[in-house]
Amino acid sequence: MSSGPGDVLQLIRRNGANTRRDIQNVTGLSRVTVAQRIDALLSARLIRESGEGEATGGRRPNRLVFDVRHSALAVATVDTAHSRVAITDLSGRILDHALVDVAIEEGPDTVLAALAQGMTSLMSRIGADISQLSGSGISIPGPVDPHTRRPSQPPIMPGWDAYPIADRFAEVLPVPTFVENDADAMAFGEQSTAYPESNSLCLVKVSTGIGAGLVLGGSVYHGIDGGAGDIGHIRLAGETALCQCGSRGCLAAVASGRAVAMELAQRGFATKSGRDVKELLDSGNVDALALTHEAGRRIGEVMATVVSMVNPGVLVISGDLASSALLGGLRETLYPRSLARATRNLDVRLSTLADDAGLIGMARIVSDSLFSAAAVNTRLL
Known about the structure:
This protein is α/β, with parallel strands linked by helices. The chain has three domains: 5-67, Arc Repressor Mutant, subunit A, CATH 1.10.10.10; 72-185 and 358-370, Nucleotidyltransferase, domain 5 (2-Layer Sandwich), CATH 3.30.420; 195-353, 2-Layer Sandwich (Nucleotidyltransferase, domain 5).
């Protein structure tokens, strides 16, 4: 393995080694070189000494930990009708958050300006300034090209295709900015927080639209150009409903929050989005429960193929329609249509982080990028 300070930091962050002696044993570096690496990380305030490690005879060694208070992160999750912004520490712990009332259809310039204003307000509220901010991250409800970090033909984001979000956002908030698909960020938040031992996790977000995120081997899987997990636009046999993407028969056209809201509107309810459906679900509305259950059945049909192909250990259901009604419907079709081997060790459950999943996941993605071994080695060597 490489022996730079960044590589030592990764051992400490991943609990691979948390004392000088352990680092020396794992890396094979000399005591002097380990001391140099630790001193560089301490001077940069990237690590700190925290109490005592496990004794192996004699004096207990000091335990080394990643200093998550080194700086703060500003993150946002953009949705169709509104966005959320937060300030977090480097572990993804939310220090403060707020709702930003801006619709995605207002375009990237308007949305990004609103996000920056919201983040700035939060920083003032917690007594922080720009010098304490090391990076920012934004998740969006559409595919993101992993090479350019720009939206890649997002079906429900007119005016956003190939828009340079990171570059433009850095003009108003001058720190490195990272962009991710919303379901991918949520999946990473769930996996890294609630299921760190799972090597394969799939998250399905069912809100106004439908999308999925995959974490394989501890990393987000994007596909060749960011299209992995775009299950909302898989076409269902025999369906002709018009989707927002312009095609007919898409899963999102019959099972998304928007689709359920449209059906409820025809029954006399004032519903336009997944958020409106959620309010009815929370109140126990019989029509909303029945339609959401049926939406779960349709989603389960598609997820049976995904589960049989990917064989994840955990399937998390999140978003506005995440409920026992949706989960029950999904299970009704998922298990009978999947290979028994693909589901025998599958844990299907509702999100543990709810709306915070995307914020936490985005913060952890930014932190992993800013403080990767390569980035830290470049900075300190």
